[in-house]
Design goal:
about 290 residues; 15 helices; globular
Length: about 290
C-alpha cells in the first residue's frame, strides 16, 4: 500500500510539473522571443529565424524610442498617476468594502446592487465625457485619478475578505470602547494587508497600462502618459517619420517590427520588476477574498 501511494503521489506531482512547464512555455517563451527581436539588428530581423537569442545584437530600437524627448515626460506622468492613484483607490475601495460588509448598515443590499449594476451597464463614452467635462476634469491630472477611485470588482474582493474575518474581533473592540473608525484602522485594515497587496498590484497594472484616458481626455503634451505615447509611436507606420532628421544608416538600423518589440519590453518591464515584491501575497489574498460573495 505504501509503495502504491508513493507511486501515485509521484505521478501526480509529475503531471503538475508538466502542466506548470507547459504554462511557462506558453507565457514566458513568447516574451523571450520579443526581447530577442528587440535586441537584434532590424535589417537582420526581417530575415526571420530569431528564436530566443539575438543574432546580431543592437540597441538601436531602444535608442530610437528612448531618444524621443516626450518619452521621459510621459514616464513621469505615468509614475505620478500610479503613485498617487493606487493609494487613493486602495483607501476608497477598502473603506467602501468595510461599510458594505456591515450587516447593520441601512440599505446595504440596495447599495451593493447599485454598485454591481455599474459593472455591467454604462452610459457610454459621450455621457462619460460630458460628466468629466462638467466636473472640470478634462485636460487635468485628476482625470487619471478621480474616475478610478472605485473599482467595483476589487471592492467585492476586499468586502468578501472582510466578511470572512471573525466578527468577534469587532465585538471585542467595541467592548473596549473603540468606534467604527478605530475598528477599521486598527483591527480590519492590518488584517487586510494580503488582499490589499493583491488589489494594489492590480490597480498599479491598471494605472500603468492605461492609455485611453490620456488619449481621449487630455490635449496637453505634458499630460500624455507613457502608454499613450507608446501607442502614438506604434501607430506610426512609416519609420522615417519616427527618425526624421536621422541619416540613412540609422533609418535602416530600425524597423516598425523592432520598434514594436522594444516598446513592448519598455511597457512591460516595470511591472515585471514590481511583481516579485508582492507575489507572496497573491495566493492568500485571492483565495481568501474570492471564496463567496
Amino acid at each position: 500500500m505504501r509503495r502504491a501511494f508513493d507511486r501515485d503521489d509521484f505521478i501526480f506531482k509529475g503531471l503538475v510539473y508538466l502542466i506548470l512547464l507547459a504554462l511557462f512555455c506558453v507565457t514566458f517563451l513568447p516574451f523571450l522571443n520579443i526581447l530577442a527581436i528587440s535586441l537584434n539588428d532590424a535589417t537582420d530581423s526581417v530575415k526571420g529565424g530569431i528564436s530566443f537569442w539575438p543574432r546580431q545584437f543592437s540597441l538601436q530600437s531602444y535608442e530610437t524610442v528612448l531618444g524621443d524627448s516626450q518619452i521621459w515626460s510621459a514616464l513621469r506622468v505615468t509614475v505620478a498617476r500610479t503613485v498617487v492613484g493606487v493609494p487613493l483607490s486602495l483607501f476608497t475601495i477598502t473603506m467602501l468594502a468595510y461599510v458594505l460588509s456591515r450587516k447593520d448598515i441601512p440599505g446595504g443590499k440596495p447599495l451593493t446592487f447599485i454598485f454591481l449594476f455599474t459593472m455591467y451597464f454604462s452610459g457610454g463614452l459621450i455621457p462619460y465625457y460630458m460628466v468629466l467635462k462638467s466636473l472640470g476634469l478634462l485636460d487635468t491630472f485628476w482625470v487619471f485619478i478621480v474616475p478610478s477611485l472605485v473599482n467595483v470588482f476589487y471592492m467585492i474582493i476586499v468586502r468578501t475578505y472582510i466578511n470572512e474575518l471573525p466578527r468577534e474581533l469587532e465585538e471585542s473592540a467595541k467592548i473596549d470602547g473603540a468606534n467604527d473608525l478605530q475598528i477599521f484602522f486598527k483591527v480590519y485594515l492590518p488584517l487586510c494587508l494580503p488582499v490589499l497587496a493583491t488589489v494594489g498590484m492590480f490597480l498599479a497594472i491598471d494605472q500603468w497600462n492605461s492609455w485611453f484616458d490620456s488619449y481621449a481626455f487630455t490635449s496637453s503634451i505634458e499630460l500624455k502618459t507613457l502608454q499613450a505615447k507608446l501607442v502614438q509611436i506604434l501607430n506610426q507606420a512609416d519609420t522615417s517619420q519616427m527618425t526624421s532628421g536621422a541619416n540613412a544608416s540609422n533609418r535602416q538600423a530600425i524597423s516598425p517590427q523592432s520598434i514594436r518589440m522594444a516598446i513592448t519590453i519598455i511597457a512591460t518591464l516595470p511591472i515585471l520588476l514590481v511583481y516579485p515584491l508582492v507575489q507572496r501575497f497573491f495566493a492568500e489574498g485571492m483565495t481568501l477574498g474570492s471564496v463567496k460573495m
